């Protein structure tokens, strides 16, 4: 069991009795959906957790989190004019990225779907890291662009804090998923600051060239973070869809059209056309350029009702233009001399790549019907979310790249991932106490759950 637990997870103790070793500080950076969000009343200042929560999740999400993009500022702003979205910074930033629903019920049943960096934090504490001295977290408003000023400034402050708290030691960053894109943007825009404060960057499951299947479908039909019975207590796919259409971060994870894909990702639609009393059914394909016109047509009638008002949410070309600028910033990123980069990418899981809507027997007539259609995918190797091809195409001079058989979120509690991190941080000799205190379990997921972790390395000089 995790967290020093002996009987029930809710009684776990995260404190370590280890004497702090001579360690460089570690900063954990979360990805899309990987930070707790609070809704803060502008008048009274009280806060309500709106992401993640199990009870009243969908209701609170629609009331407090639904947002629209402001092209004048570049920020996505909540529709609820009486509140604002904030990220708690408790526990040196670790609280917001640890257990995303930290309620007593969730802890006692150990609902791993919302246990985010929890196991990794425990592992690092067991290796001698101390919160507030050598261990910090950075949660952020993941609705926003990965290069927006507020997020860039927040990351800079975290790096400075970790640097000073550890007595002027450079920081080792461990990022997950979209958090890698945020770090990449920071490195591109603030290269000298990055060079000053960062020693190593360990990247896990980052969609460097995009996540075609998942992101294309997110813009068309939404995203469901939790499957099965638990989904009834979570934010609905449709509610999430209405948020993501206005999120710059989602547009920034569209497939990179400049990248030389082994096969160009496509969106396919079984389409019915009627003319002069004749009906024809055909399979239409949309590539990286053509998919934009498909998004425009499919979302032209998309709207939501908030507080009695109808809000139109078509495909947002202002965000698309902004995202193109972000993609260029990421392409221009250079790893500073003296900073070592490591990349872990997920393998061995079926990962959506092409997306298909409708069928030959039940074709789509009007493209707006797609938004109410469940997709069918063609798959490639990856972590169920990010194709391995994209995740390992970082374009940086990596010291080491490692492919680990694991799911996207499961990599954050994977034993092999922990071993790699310990090796790259140079704390392998401090693992004994951790192995006695914490039991690491492999996550199970689909037909690959019985497979053991497999690591393949591509080595480069730093």
Automatic annotation (TrEMBL):
Presence of keyword Magnesium: no
Keywords: Acyltransferase, Transferase
Organism (species): Quillaja saponaria
GO molecular function: O-acyltransferase activity
UniProt keyword Endoplasmic reticulum, yes or no: no
Name used for this protein in its record: Lecithin:cholesterol acyltransferase family protein
GO annotation, biological process: lipid metabolic process
Segments traversing the membrane: none
PANTHER family cross-referenced by the UniProt entry: LECITHIN-CHOLESTEROL ACYLTRANSFERASE-RELATED
């Amino acid at each position: 069991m995790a967290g020093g637990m002996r009987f029930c997870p809710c009684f776990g103790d995260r404190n370590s009795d280890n004497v702090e070793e001579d360690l460089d500080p570690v900063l954990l950076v979360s990805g899309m959906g990987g930070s707790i969000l609070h809704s803060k009343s502008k008048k009274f200042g009280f806060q309500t957790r709106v992401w993640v929560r199990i009870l009243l999740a969908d209701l609170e999400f629609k009331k407090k989190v639904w947002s629209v993009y402001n092209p004048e500022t570049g920020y996505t702003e909540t529709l609820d004019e009486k509140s604002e979205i904030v990220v708690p910074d408790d526990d040196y930033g670790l609280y917001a990225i640890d257990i995303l629903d930290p309620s007593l019920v969730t802890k006692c049943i150990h609902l791993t779907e919302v246990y985010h960096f929890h196991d990794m934090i425990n592992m690092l504490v067991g290796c001698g890291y101390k919160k507030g001295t050598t261990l910090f977290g950075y949660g952020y408003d993941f609705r926003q662009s990965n290069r927006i000023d507020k997020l860039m400034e927040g990351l800079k402050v975290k790096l400075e804090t970790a640097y000073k708290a550890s007595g002027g030691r450079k920081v080792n960053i461990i990022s997950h998923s979209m958090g890698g894109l945020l770090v990449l943007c920071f490195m591109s825009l603030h290269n000298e600051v990055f060079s000053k404060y960062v020693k190593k960057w360990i990247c896990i499951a980052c969609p460097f060239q995009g996540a075609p299947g998942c992101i294309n479908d997110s813009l068309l039909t939404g995203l469901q973070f939790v499957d099965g019975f638990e989904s009834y207590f979570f934010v609905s796919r449709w509610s999430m869809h209405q948020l993501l259409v206005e999120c710059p971060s989602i547009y920034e994870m569209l497939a990179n059209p400049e990248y030389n894909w082994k096969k160009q990702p496509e969106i396919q639609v079984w389409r019915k056309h009627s003319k002069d009393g004749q009906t024809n059914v055909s399979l239409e394909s949309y590539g990286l350029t053509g998919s934009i016109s498909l998004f425009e047509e499919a979302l032209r009638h998309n709207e939501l009702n908030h507080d009695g008002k109808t809000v139109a949410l078509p495909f947002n070309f202002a965000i698309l233009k902004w995202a193109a600028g972000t993609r260029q910033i990421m392409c221009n990123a250079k790893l500073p001399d003296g900073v070592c980069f490591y990349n872990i990418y997920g393998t061995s899981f079926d990962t959506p790549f092409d997306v298909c809507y409708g069928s030959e027997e039940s074709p789509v007539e009007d493209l707006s019907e797609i938004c109410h259609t469940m997709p069918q995918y063609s798959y490639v190797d990856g972590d169920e979310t990010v194709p391995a091809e994209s995740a390992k195409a970082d374009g940086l001079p990596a010291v080491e790249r490692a492919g680990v058989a694991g799911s996207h979120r499961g990599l954050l509690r994977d034993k092999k991932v922990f071993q790699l991190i310990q090796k790259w941080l140079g704390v392998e000799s401090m693992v004994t106490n951790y192995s006695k205190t914490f039991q690491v379990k492999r996550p199970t997921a689909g037909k690959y759950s019985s497979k053991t972790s497999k690591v393949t390395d591509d080595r480069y000089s730093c």
